[in-house]
Amino acid sequence: MDNTFSDSAYLNMELLRFTTAGSVDDGKSTLIGRLLFDSKAIFQDQLEEVERASVKKGDEHTNLALLTDGLRAEREQGITIDVAYRYFHTPKRKFIIADTPGHIQYTRNMVTGASTANAAVILVDARHGVIEQTVRHAYIASLLCIPHVIVCVNKMDLVDFSEEVFAGIQKRFMTFSSNLNLKDVRFIPISALHGDNVVGRSTKTPWYDGPTLMYLLENLYISNDYNLVDARFPVQYVVRPQSNEFHDFRGYAGRMASGTFKIGDKVKVLPSGFTSTIESIRLFKEELESASTPQSVTITLSDDLDVSRGCMIVPVENGIEAGQDIDVMVC
User: Fold this and answer.
1) Cβ contacts of residue 320 below 8 Å, gap of 6+?
2) Considering the domain 233-315 in this protein, what is its CATH number?
3) pTM above 0.85, yes or no
């Protein structure tokens, strides 16, 4: 696979953030390693290091899980403790993967990795089916309003790629998830260890006519997942270079949480309530006419207002109400 791009082409590629979830030993780290390996997204020296570590551990094969399990305790125990982020791209899309732990005591770490995800890949061990941790992770995906959930029934090689086993797990998951806020749920039978239906289609599942995991990740339609109507810009950082070129520059950096802002839009800064007009929108050195979710940009205003980290820039006509009383569910 040719992963060579120009800088401009890479910057303009659509980004998909997804998280892995599932119980301990369901194969999350192995699946991520398989995705990286089969899509040729790892360097030769990384692979050689993993091969050496696999031999040292006494594994019978190259343990691709070691590509994501970076902590010493993780490699010794063969589990994931911390959230491991991995970045790669294909000719169609950029990806940020959050490999999250499976143990119940590290469930809070799964919330961290899932908080910004467009999709959740939930692994289920084909031998054990839907268990308590599967339900817990599906509930968290629903609570965080993750738009897309991909249930990968892993270790199908250990149940002889049985269609009946796969169908039973699919039925069980849909039964309990029907009461959750999961809008788009897909199911894929895979073997992360051997690569079946991960990047390449498996000949061992002739009864399955759906996409491979990589094809689905590359082609998930996520444009409609964003609120493009209500413009909201939380300020994360105030940019003051104080250089000769930008001596009086004062910009507000952040990520468009929703909607679109254009140069000339009349805006209000919350919680102060002061109003101004958007003077410029910058993406690094490039000046833009507009910015839409989920772009990260720097906005300047035509007036010198007291704007700091934590303030919210909203339209004058379509703002939000500021108050002190909230009703919220917190993880």
Assistant:
1) 232, 270, 312, 314
2) 2.40.30.10
3) no
